[in-house]
Every structure is written in structure tokens, then in C-alpha cells.
Amino acid sequence: MNCRIKKENIKLFASDFDGIFTDGKLTVYSDGTTSKKIDYKDIMAIANLLKANIHVAVISGETSKAIEVLKQKFPSIDIFQNIRNKLEVLQALVDKYNLTKENVVYTGDDINDIKCLEYASLAFTVENAHKNVKKMKNINIIRKNGGEGAVREIADLLI
Questions:
Q1: 61-88, pLDDT tens digit by residue?
Q2: Which of 10, 57, 59, 113 is most buried when burial is the number of CB atoms within 10 A of its CB?
Q3: What is the predicted pLDDT for the residue at 29?
Q4: How many CA atoms lie within 13 A of 67 on its CB side?
């Protein structure tokens, strides 16, 4: 982890959803319904981050009922779905909470997360992330794959 970042400066944990909270897979059933899996360790991670007075935001390029489940469980988290410009949303969150980019942690796994990963003071990705994300200079690669407790691993490092 980037040692220049002080844990007490972290005020916002923002993350992509698919490939971080999930394994990035979408199960499509014969009746057309779909499902995604979320690890309960990651749900506990959200609770722990909120308890540590760290704002939590999910910024997804897709729309998912699984994200809505998180919002129902944790009404105070910020949820953004079907987002094409994630950096714009992240910067709006920084303004909303009167923060600076030094207060921001971002976690993402694919090329549409790169601008947010570059912006954040502390950037994380999962072991099975896209190769271009894993090559970034400022990236911290955790041991877990997406959907296997990755958010919990990061939260434990931050708290």
C-alpha cells in the first residue's frame, strides 16, 4: 500500500461494482432473469467503512438489482448506475462531501475505471483485473479476485 497516504485522511471509498463486488459474471437463466453473487465479507466491509466514518460510493457502468440490494441495506451509501463518465461522478462526490482528492480511495478493475484510479490518492485493483489497470504506476493490487472478499481486504487495510 502507498505508505505516503495516511489512513486518517481517507474519507471516501468509491468503487466499481462488477468485477470488484462481484466476480464479473452475469448468470442468465432460461426465463431471461439474471443474477450476480456478492460475498458477505464485502457487505461487512461496507458496514465497517461506514462505522469508521468513511463515505461509501458505488459507481457502475451498468445497472443491476444487486446494487439496489446494497442501497436498501445501507441507505447512506451513494449509488450511481449506468455511468459513462465515472470521473465526473467521483469529482462530484468530492465536492458534495467537501473533500479533496487526497481523501479518496478508488477501486476498479477495468479500463473504464482508469481515470478514477489515476485521480484517487489511493488506488486498488483485484488480482484478476484487466492488464492495463494492473500496469498502472499508482495501483495497489490486492490478493483477492473480484467477488471473493476483495472489498473486505481493502477495507481491512484502510481501517
A1: 999 999 999 999 999 999 999 999 999 9
A2: 113
A3: 93
A4: 21
Enter the DSSP assignment of 112: G
SS3 140: strand
Per-position b or e across 58-92, b if 16+ CB within 10 A of its CB? bbbbeebebbeebeeebeebbbbeebeebbebbee
pLDDT band at 5 (very low <50, low <70, confident <90, very high): low
Closest CA to 81 of 99, 104, 63, 107: 63
Using the predicted structure, report yes or no on whether residue 10 has a pLDDT greater than 90. Answer: yes
Give 37's Cβ-side CA count (13 Å radius).
9
Grid coordinates given for 46: 461496507
DSSP single-letter state for residue 145: P
Asked if residue 153 lies in contact with residue 145, where contact means CB atoms within 8 angstroms, the answer is no
Burial degree of 8 (CB within 10 A; 0-12, 13-18, 19+)? exposed
pLDDT tier for residue 6 given thresholds of 50, 70 and 90:
confident
C-alpha separations of 40 from 47, 149, 150 in Å: 11, 8, 11
